[in-house]
Amino acid sequence: MTDAVTLHGYFRSGASYRVRIALNLKGIAYADAFHHLRKGEQNAPEYRALNPQGLLPSLEIDGAVLTQSLAICEYLDEVYPAPALLPADPVARAKVRAFAQVIACDTHPVQNLKVLARLRALGLDEAQVNTWAAAVIVEGLDACGKLIEGQPGPYCFGEQVTLADLFLVPQLVNARRFGVDLQRWPKLLEIERACLALDAFSKAAPENQPDAE
Question: pTM of this prediction?
């Protein structure tokens, strides 16, 4: 068992949600350190000393401070290998990583508070900001749907939960926040239902966090 683990996050942060799921799946107990994004608490000097970007999450584990949710999840999978979040087969492994990166690199970042604030600063009104964010989500989820065509389920890449599922479920929560009609992707919704039937996912959900408002 690892030493004390602290997750610096926010209940509504999709990136923090991913890491909560990973920790739960690995059976790693952790303490929450709450940083209110909308109040700017992630920019406090004490937190910036941990994470120079001032982004959430950060994970204190094994004597280190880890940042970036994708890197954190892959670390957990390497050091605490059961259950595995990545397939053993190199091609399947690459496909799972690609799916996760569609969300982590190309979809989710452009809806974070910093980016949306810059759009407002450029003169876009709230409706325009939300429409722009929703369009990016639709593009990302369309790609995700294509990437798992032919996969049998119940999860993104078959019968085992992978990194892809950890990234998909929080992104669907974010999509709803921006008013995206998810009926366009029935298979993604089926995967979400299968995931949320697992304690590791349901316990990590934003509404089930102690700091949820």
Answer: 0.94
